[in-house]
Amino acid sequence: MIKLEIGTDVTEILGITKIVEDLADIDKSEQEVEDTRGKIETFLDSKLLRYKFYRKFKKRLNGEKLKGSWDNWFPSTSDETNIQNLWTKFVERNGRTGYYTSLKLEGQNFSIYNRYTCSTFGFVKKLNFGICSHYKNLITDDGSHFWNAAKRLDLQKKLSKIDSEIVVRGELMGPKICGNIYGLTEYRFFVFEVYDPKEKRLYTFDEMVYFCQAFGFEIVPIIDFDYTLPETVHEVLEYSNRKDELVPGKLVQSEGIIIRHKDNMKISTKAKSPVYLAKK
Q: For 248, what's the count of Cα atoms within 13 Å in the CB-facing half-sphere?
């Protein structure tokens, strides 16, 4: 019998080679639509992919894939590592103080942005609104819940008040998204990052809070505004066992927590609730 301490990484012991979390982000009905769309697209590709007009149309319809700092303009995709896998190094490199914690919401990664494009031989600049899923820039309205949410929440109007390039990233929640475990009856967009493309930096925590208050955005639920990392990772995992109440009176087991440095928002990690994982 192997004796293990609580918090030990057991992926190798159990033979787990890879966990793909994105699959859990796709509602079954949406997956069926994607499968059907994939079959149609494969057929059209076989007939029309050699034509430039079709390749251009396909790019606008499907969007552009985001990878790293896409197009040297968009911020890197947000993917926190489980704190069990980097606990010692994380503490050594970043210290124990200066953090805040927020709930890890069970929704879909969603970004909206303002970006300048040039027209009329490059002499006229226009500030355009756009949206992104976790890994794609959705150039045109494809009928997805991302675009539907943007319209329902009037996000373009909110960003139109900002006369500069900006990226606002958060968690999209609502009907038919990840099973909608919170029982939400309408879309909600919880911001956790604001990025300035000109300065190529993320807003600090205080700047992000001010931005959301000034322009009417909802921020992710904050647990602790001044969090100090404890002595052991076990204490962090115990701390991650929480319940959400996004809908008053409806308590839902939380997926876990996000820990971020208030001054350097690039420094972040997540702790998944052991209770949540056991129930899943």
A: 0
Q: Residue type at 167?
A: V
Q: How many residues does the chain have?
A: 280
Per DSSP, the three-state class of 179 is helix
CA 199, CA 160: separation in Å to the nearest integer?
A: 20
Residue among 241, 230, 195, 213 at smallest CA distance from 103: 241
Q: Find all residues with CB under 8 Å of 25, minimum gap 6, and list them.
A: 107, 108, 109, 134, 178
Residue 92 to residue 199: CA distance in whole angstroms = 28
CB distance 233 to 84 below 8 Å: yes
Residues with Cβ within 8 Å of residue 43, at least 6 apart in sequence:
none
**Distance in angstroms (rounded) separating the CA atoms of residues 115 and 129:** 7
- Paired tokens of 89: 């190094």
CA angle 31, 37, 40 (to 5 degrees): 150
- Please check whether residue 110 is in contact with residue 132, taking contact to mean a CB–CB distance below 8 angstroms: yes
How far apart CA 233 and CA 272 sit, in angstroms, is 12
Tens-digit pLDDT profile for residues 69-78: 455 677 877 6
Position 47 confidence tier, pLDDT thresholds 50, 70, 90: low
Which domains does the chain carry? Answer: 63-279 (3.30.470.30)
Task: State how far the Cα of 261 lies from the Cα of 96, in Å rounded to an integer.
Answer: 10
